[in-house]
Specification:
Elements: E1 6-10, E2 15-20, E3 24-30, E4 37-43, E5 46-50, H1 53-60, E6 64-65, E7 70-72, E8 78-85, E9 90-91, H2 99-106, H3 111-114, H4 122-131, E10 144-146, E11 150-152, E12 158-160, E13 169-175, E14 179-184, E15 201-207, H5 222-235
Antiparallel strand pairs: 1-15, 2-14, 3-13, 3-15, 4-5, 4-10, 4-14, 6-9, 7-8, 8-13, 11-12
C-alpha cells in the first residue's frame, strides 16, 4: 500500500487488538481468499462506548457493509468509514463462533497439544483481547465479519456464500476518532467447510487524506452527516484541524 506506515500478518484462527488513531486508514487484506475477520470497536477514552450494529444498519438502510458505509458507536458517533472495498459484501448479523460450535464442527484441538494449530473460536478470542483492557463477557457486542457474505433464502434461512471469496480482496477503513480495534481470524459461525477453514489476513496502516467539502461516506445519508457532526463536537477544541465544513 502506498504510504503504508506499518504492515503485519495475522494467521488464521488468531486474535489481536490495537488502537487506531483518527485520520488513519486500516486496510484489511484477505490474503488467500475465504478469510473471516471478526471485529469489535471501542472508544479507548470511554470503553463504555462501543460499536452499535443496529444503529449502523438502520441509519444506512442496509443489511451489509461495503464502500460508502460508516460504522456507528452507541453514542451516535462514527468510528470509521469504509472508503474502499474490493470484496463488496461484509456480514453484520452472523455473529460469532463459540467453543461448542467449533468443537462440534471441526473437533477440539487444545493449544497445549497442538500449539499454533489449535482450534480457537471467535467468542473466546474476543474475550482474551478484551481482558487486556479490563473488559469481559458483558462488554461483548454484535460484531462485524469482514470478508464474509451471508445470503438469505426464501424461507429466511441464512447461509455463508463461499463463492464470494476473493484472494487479495481488501477493505479500507478510515478512522474518524481514536478507536480500540479488537479482531480475530476465526471461522465465521455459518462456515460449514469440512476442514478447519482458518485463513490469514494482512493488515496495514497509513495516514488518511483530510476530508474535503464532499465526502462519499459522510454525504451518503443525512444520518451520516449527523454522525460526523457528533464527531466534530466530540473533538471540538482538541486541535486546530477541526472545522465544521471540512475535517471534523
Amino acid at each position: 500500500m502506498e504510504n503504508s506506515l506499518y504492515q503485519d500478518e495475522l494467521p488464521g484462527g488468531k486474535h489481536w487488538s490495537f488502537i487506531v488513531r483518527r485520520n488513519m486508514i486500516l486496510r484489511l487484506i484477505d490474503k488467500e481468499g475465504g478469510a473471516n475477520v471478526g471485529m469489535l470497536l471501542y472508544n479507548p477514552e470511554n470503553l463504555l462506548e462501543r460499536y452499535n450494529a443496529p444503529d449502523t444498519l438502520k441509519c444506512q438502510h442496509s443489511f451489509k457493509l461495503t464502500q460508502g458505509h460508516c460504522l456507528y458507536s452507541d453514542m451516535g458517533r462514527i468510528f470509521c468509514s469504509v472508503i474502499a472495498d474490493t470484496h463488496g459484501w461484509h456480514d453484520t448479523v452472523g455473529g460469532n463462533s463459540t467453543a461448542a460450535m467449533v468443537r462440534d464442527r471441526w473437533g477440539h484441538k487444545s493449544y497445549q497439544d497442538h500449539r499454533n494449530d489449535w482450534t480457537q473460536n471467535g467468542q473466546d478470542a474476543f474475550l482474551v483481547e478484551l481482558a487486556k483492557y479490563e473488559l469481559g463477557r458483558r462488554d461483548l457486542a454484535a460484531n462485524v465479519n469482514w470478508f464474509s457474505k451471508v445470503v438469505v433464502d426464501s424461507t429466511g434461512a441464512m447461509a455463508l456464500d463461499p463463492s464470494a471469496a476473493k484472494p487479495g480482496a481488501y477493505v479500507d477503513l478510515r478512522f474518524e476518532m481514536d478507536t480500540l480495534v479488537v479482531l480475530h481470524t476465526c471461522p465465521h459461525p455459518l462456515n460449514d467447510a469440512k476442514a478447519w477453514p482458518a485463513r490469514p489476513i494482512v493488515y496495514q496502516l497509513r495516514p488518511a487524506l483530510p476530508l474535503g467539502e464532499k465526502d462519499p461516506c459522510r454525504d451518503a445519508r443525512d444520518e451520516n452527516r449527523r454522525g460526523f457532526t457528533n464527531n466534530w463536537l466530540y473533538h471540538l477544541g482538541a486541535d486546530e484541524s477541526t472545522s465544521f465544513g471540512g475535517r471534523r
